[in-house]
């Protein structure tokens, strides 16, 4: 079974790892987990700020995680349907904060199982970003 997961994965943390572990489990024993990494430009458009880590660094880190078989960069135009058509997943595993994407995919009648997973742990990239912002420094932290 092929499982597809997606996210920004900026400031990789425990919740990201657990999400990807649980996503892979959805596919059973011999599952293949492919992860779409949001482009820097997509994050700027959707969140209003650039990621701290650039897209290639985020992709490499996610791909190095044990449950991940392959990590790919998303499309500049956020065309997830074209990626779904290429990857041909049996299951799409969404994070707890991806309700809009869940609604979008359900409207497309893709005939693919869509599962939204829970939040894992008490930390988020937004919380880490706020901690970093509160540190005394004159240096910008984005694109380390």
Account of the 3D structure:
The chain has 144 residues and is of the alpha/beta class. It has one domain: Rossmann fold. 39% of the residues lie in helices and 17% in strands. It has six helices and five strands; from the N terminus they run βαβααβαβαβα. It has a five-stranded parallel sheet, sandwiched between helices. Helix 5 links the parallel strand 4 and strand 5. The model has no long low-confidence stretch (mean pLDDT 89).
Structural features:
144 residues; five-stranded parallel β-sheet; Rossmann fold; 39% helix; 17% strand; globular; alpha/beta
In short:
The protein has 144 residues and is α/β, with parallel strands linked by helices. The protein has 6 helices and 5 strands; from the N terminus they run E-H-E-H-H-E-H-E-H-E-H.
